[in-house]
Specification:
The chain contains ten helices and eleven strands. The chain is α/β, with parallel strands linked by helices and 290 residues long.
Length: 290
């Protein structure tokens, strides 16, 4: 199994100007990761995506750091002003960027769900009628470029393991699967170990993420915390420091024989470099690598 890190983990440092996207590549190599995953590239001023992607690829090659995945946002119900065909074409352009990067896979969202003023059925089954043909067209296109496509358990509406499994089986395409984010199941109040057990057969990529959690019956803990769909509280932290049942999830992953990439996605308030470094050491320890 390769251990990687998502560039999203550095986003706080990039946004405040302490490091650049290219700096993150060197940091990742210095920390000893096997691979890197890029999440929505932060472009330098006056740079365009199709020109910056080859620069990213070359920088990774210079430090012998393969690119494991490319992660972007999408919404096939509401995106591109509610025009599903336009949203599919927009995401195809992102697949072309993944190809320029040399990434073997791309993660896109499915949808955040129906808006409050939507007229018509708003069930998940109704959403599938829109999502399935759009995603099937996209993954067909990506397959021709040798790129796998996947959704993540992300965004509340299409986040429960049962809904993700429904979507994958409805699309029914060997090129389409899931990026399992171990921690994100808590956002919809689902036990991560049970959800991982359900979805591991469909996994193309996995995120290791950790959260502290508090009951919604307790007082609001304030800054740094957010609410789950069911009203509980979560706060991102270093992998191994929180309440996500990582050991049982990793055991399930290992027993299934998953042998692709496991990427840290750090969302804590701690210093990102320390958080990523400590999380990597913990993951290696849990997996018996050290």
């Amino acid at each position: 199994m390769q251990i990687g890190v998502s560039s999203y983990s550095y986003s706080k440092l990039v946004r405040c100007g302490k490091i650049t996207e290219l700096d993150g590549i060197q940091i990742t190599a210095d920390l000893g990761f096997d691979v890197i995953e890029f999440s929505t590239l932060n472009l330098p001023q006056d740079q365009i995506l199709k020109e910056f992607a080859p620069i990213i690829k070359k920088s990774c090659q210079q430090v012998n750091l393969p690119i494991a995945n490319y992660t972007i946002g999408a919404d096939f119900i509401n995106g591109s002003n509610g025009d599903t065909k336009r949203e599919v074409e927009r995401v195809k352009d992102e697949v072309r960027i993944a190809h320029l990067l040399g990434a073997p896979g791309i993660r896109h969202d499915a949808t955040r769900g129906f808006e409050s003023d939507y007229k018509g059925k708003r069930s998940f089954d109704a959403a599938l009628e829109i999502l399935v043909p759009a995603i099937r067209e996209l993954t067909d296109f990506a397959a021709k470029l040798g790129i796998k496509t996947m959704v993540e358990n992300h965004g509340f509406f299409c986040q429960d393991s049962e809904r993700i499994e429904q979507l994958i089986n409805a699309v029914n395409h060997e090129n389409f699967g899931i990026l399992i984010d171990i921690g994100n199941f808590l956002c919809v109040d689902e036990p991560p170990d049970q959800a991982v057990g359900r979805l591991i057969p469909y996994a193309f990529h996995i995120h290791a993420k950790d959260f502290y959690k508090k009951s919604g019956q307790e007082p609001d803990p304030g800054e740094g915390w957010f609410r789950t769909r069911g009203g509980n509280y979560l706060k991102g932290t270093i992998v191994g420091h929180g309440d996500v049942p990582l050991i049982s999830c990793l055991d399930t992953i290992s027993r299934y024989g998953y042998d692709n990439t496991l990427s840290i996605e750090f969302e804590g308030l701690e210093d990102p470099i320390d958080g990523i470094r400590i999380g990597l050491a913990n993951l290696k320890n849990y997996l018996g690598y050290e």
